[in-house]
Design goal:
Length: 207
Amino acid sequence: METIFLPETLSVWLMQYGSIALFVLLALGIFALPIPDETLMVFAGILISRHQLSMFPTVLAAFSGTLVGISISYAIGRIAGTFLIKKYGHLVRLTEEKMARVHLWFERIGRWALLVGYFIPGIRHLTGYAAGTTKMTYAHFITFAALGATIWVGLFLSLGYFLGGRWAHIIALIEEHSEYMILGAFVLVGLLTILFLWMRQTRKGIQ
């Protein structure tokens, strides 16, 4: 199997240790280590389509690994504020300038930044920290983080699963059209919001 688009060590870990490796790598990647998260999930989707990974454990590992990683970021932001970022952030590519940009996002679109941020490289690593430093309650944080994780994980695993034989084109499209993916995420958020409001209004009418 060709694995040129993924660092060899990561592809070997994924093929050898399966869902456990995916869980750990995504948790570390979301937390801020330089791991190609989307590419990793596309490759996992390819392995599912070729029956080298089981679907349910892989999906569960990807979703839970993502939530664990972003929850660790949230906890650090909540407990230590910006102190650790100022002192040690440069070690994991977290700068005050990046944090200021993410805080601006939170001011503009609020909790939805947690959802959209997954689709923006360099931003998704910071949304958990930003949510923690703004003292967002964990209940609100995990609700929007879980919704974003569901969409993000589902999208990239599906790309690998359904278009596995054309992985090179998938990666090229991801890199070339990332801005359209962001736009699509915003549209999806809008549709989900409308659906949620409609369902809540319908429920009130029934009561």
